[in-house]
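Hello again, I could really use a second opinion on something today. My current little project is about how a certain protein chain folds up. You're getting the sequence in one-letter code plus the fold written as tokens. Here's the protein in full, and shout if anything looks odd to you:
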Amino acid sequence: MLPAATLYIFGAGHVAHSLYNSAKVAGFDVNVIDDRASYANRERFPEAKEVIAQDFDQAMARLSPNETSYIVIVTRGHRDDMRVLRWAVQTRARYVGMIGSKRKTITIFRELLKEGIAEKLFERVHAPVGLDIGAITPEEIAVSITAELIAMRRGVERPLPHMSWFHWRKLGELVDEKILTTEKGREH
């Protein structure tokens, strides 16, 4: 039996609502945080453990994710995504995921590095979030994210089709290192 897993969803739009539904069914205790009360409310998220309709900075100050926590960032804008990611990478959360394109991910990553956030803190970031299943609709995107959350929770070790730029960047560095090591071996 697995310990209870807490999911913090930052954002309460279409993808967040679909993620709430799929993650809840998969056994996650879901918390929804958004700065818009018209989106973050009990009518839209009736079975959420907690629904917080508050400025993201104020909400984050109240939260303390631990090693069994998962954070998914699906806010309505890059600026909010970056604010939440800045905070999330400095928590003890087991998983941090952020929606968005590879370009957006790289831009935010570089900006946070300039601010002094340590590069090592991004090692557990999954961005773009989810498994690469060709998802297009909010419901499909939610399934791809939930599948990745389940894989993390279950400790799956086999290669999965992650969409995360951080994952592929690290894999690329390992491949490059292996190629260089192999080429050096051939030179001698």
Q: What stands out?
A: Residues 5-187 form a domain with the Rossmann fold fold (CATH 3.40.50.720).
